[in-house]
Design brief:
The protein is of the alpha/beta class. It has a single domain, classed as Vaccinia Virus protein VP39 (Rossmann fold, 3-Layer(aba) Sandwich), CATH 3.40.50.150. Helix content is about 25%, strand content about 25%. The chain has a seven-stranded mixed sheet with strand order 6-5-4-7-8-11-10, with helices on both faces. Strands 1-2-3-9 form a four-stranded antiparallel sheet, with no helix packed on it. A hairpin with a 6-residue loop joins strand 10 (about 245-255) and strand 11. The termini are far apart.
Amino acid sequence: MFLQVDKCPICLAGFPEVIWDYQRPDQYELLAGITSDPKREWLRCVSCGFHFTSRNYPVAELRKCYTNGYRNQEFRGGTMRQNFDTIMQIPYAESENAQREKWLMRQIYQIPGSMLDIGSGLGVFPAAMSRMGVDVTCVEPNKDSADFIKNDLKLECLNQFYDGPVDGEFDLVTLVHVLEHEEAPIRMLTAVRENLKEDGWLFIEVPDAEEFRYLPKEHDEFNSCHVVFYDMASLFHVMVNAGFLVHIMASVRTKVRDLSRIMLLAKKYGK
């Protein structure tokens, strides 16, 4: 029995169409121990165009993937330090992290005093912001990643899932490739409001559903950890319903891997 196939989670229209289906577990499902005949589908809402998944197991089971093994050398093919250094050695003109950093700083005009980065991974983006003088706090559920961020990168890091507001208010909150993993994005973003200063910025980057037009079905962008794919209209809808005013949003392509990304900058409004 597939889950969540009856209606679109964005516009609530019924009868979404199946784009792709997967009959065998991918590497992330195997890592999470989901081996009992897992099946997935990518669905597209025929009304609003939103892309989302159905599957025959709860998405929450994938949390085991993030906490255990997701960053291990056996899974990633290198140590945390080796993978971090490989990314940092990419020429600046070709770096996706540099592209992200430049886009963000062009919009906010000044270096923020404090930043909360949710889902920090290897810590590449937080480290870049820290070198600019930003006081960075990370939230990362994987213990190996959190230890690397704390011990090697010397950044404050909370080893946990972001299941609600953490202590403090920040000038900038960043969610880089996090929201596509979330079944309940409005709930997460509502919590983010409490960690954002009244005049603070929220920066989000997610894969763009444009990728369904030109990437193959088996590309890692469509792996089991990704629950939804946004286009600009659906992301705008989520932001407004979570209590944010979108300042700017853009679809960009990365230079080397030719991937599509939506970058968004917003402020909270209302009480």
